[in-house]
Design a protein that fits this description.
This protein is mainly α. The protein is built from five helices and no strands. It is rod-shaped.
Length: about 90
């Protein structure tokens, strides 16, 4: 995120024609407006993928438990299942 978000801002500025007067070297560094558009779109796809993957991870772990752990710092785990058949055999 610390790389992708600043890159998204820089490529967005490079695509703006009005930024030629303020930062004329920016398009040269990025290889032109079309390359800036391509980088901007690729970064957008990566950020959306990052978001979707993290939402799926939250759903897989249980959203209520995740929210509880964010707020309180406690993560609830289920106790190990107690097998009643083993206690009957020993008696």
């Amino acid at each position: 995120l610390f790389v992708l978000l600043p890159l998204m801002i820089i490529t967005g500025l490079a695509m703006s024609p009005s930024m030629n007067s303020v930062l004329p070297w920016l398009n040269d560094v990025l290889g032109g407006r079309q390359t800036a558009r391509t980088i901007h779109f690729t970064v957008m796809v990566l950020l959306v993928g990052f978001f979707i993957i993290h939402m799926l991870m939250i759903l897989a772990a249980g959203p209520i438990n995740e929210l509880r752990s964010i707020i309180t710092g406690w993560y609830r785990t289920d106790p190990p299942a107690h097998d009643d058949s083993s206690s009957e055999r020993s008696a």
